[in-house]
Amino acid sequence: MRVPYSYLADQFGDPEPILEAVRTTLLKHHQYTFGPELEEFEARMARYTGARYCLGTASGTAALSMLLKAAGVGPGDEVVTVSQTFIATIGSIAAVGARPFYVDVLDDFTMDPSLLEEAITERTKAVMPVWYSGAPPRMEEIMAVAERRSLPVIEDSCCAISAKIGGKHAGTFGIGGAFSVHPLKNLNVWGDGGFIVTDSEEIYNKVLLLRNHGLKERDEVEVYGYNARLDTIQAIVGNYLYPQIDEITDRRIANAKFFDEAFSAPPLSEFITVPPRREGARHVYHMYMVLASDRDRLLQHLIDAGVEAKVHYPIPNHLQKASLEQDPSFGRTALSRTESQCRSLISLPVHQHLSRRQLEYVVETVKGFFARI
Ligand SMILES: *Cc1c(COP(=O)(O)O)cnc(C)c1O
Description:
Largest sheet: 4 strands, mixed
Number of domains: 2
Shape: globular
Number of strands: 15
Bound molecules: pyridoxal-5'-phosphate
Oligomer: single chain
Strand content: 5-15%
CATH topology of the largest domain: Aspartate Aminotransferase, domain 2
Order of helices and strands: HHHHEHEHEHEHEEEEEHEEHHEEEHHHEH
Helix content: 25-40%
CATH superfamily of the largest domain: Type I PLP-dependent aspartate aminotransferase-like (Major domain)
Structural class: alpha+beta
Strand order of the largest sheet: 1-9-8-5
CATH architecture of the largest domain: 3-Layer(aba) Sandwich
Number of helices: 15
């Protein structure tokens, strides 16, 4: 049996409704940027997340960079974040000329709020927690420290559409949240794309300028910005998928629950560690990550058996060449949990198109591996 990691061929197996939407809108009005469908998408995402404002962006990374810039972060500044994340978190900080200051993570791969206070110096200009894998960070505690130190919080909620703590959506705790609609995120379009959400009129107005070259009017440049808008065609795909967000997410959550139960019970509980799952929060499983003994051999065993497991990622950001070359002392803070997680974490396919039989096959294959040792 094959258990693929990607689901795009299934998801977009029948592209006709989307192509039809493109024909009847984009190919009628020809507004390839800033078309009415972009505004529609933004209004929908603001309503969905409960934020006052939403702006479509060229990518999740561009969304993060523009939020940082809008919050006044620039050259020489430090942003406290985590190393246990996708490179784009760190790249967005570097892109505005600032530097990441890494703190370690909890067992659920999110920022350890107890380390935040001591990581803050006079150079710190923002805090950037990550909803990594779609897991909710300790936002209440992070916000409390940041508020005490008068620091803006920018959420990397790029892979956490529909994630919540209580009833409050990812991206709505700090001054701004960034989302990605890259093809492999839970709400996905046909290329790169993203959006920001914010309740702050000031941040909204700044990102509005920044994503369009800093142009106030056609002929007047207020600040230097980027070309980082969300294309109308991607907004059309986003609008088409919008009604499916909850259903897609619920399927992924149910699949994750199936794995959690199988891996938390003997005999697998001896070899697999399921991260703690937070009560009252909605973890959306953009990735399903657990810690496994003998990870590298398990990974190969799964791949040989047709289960497309992956590792996100074997080398943490602070030990990457780009980080070490820039400032070696910066990669050397105590990040023991991050480093040990990277040695044993593994991601299993969890997407909405998996059948019950495929989920069972994944568990059987993992069992088969550990039965031999
Ligand atoms: C995907 C992702 C990003 C970047 O989003 P892009 O749209 O690919 O630029 C940033 N941070 C995290 C945690 C992500 O998962």
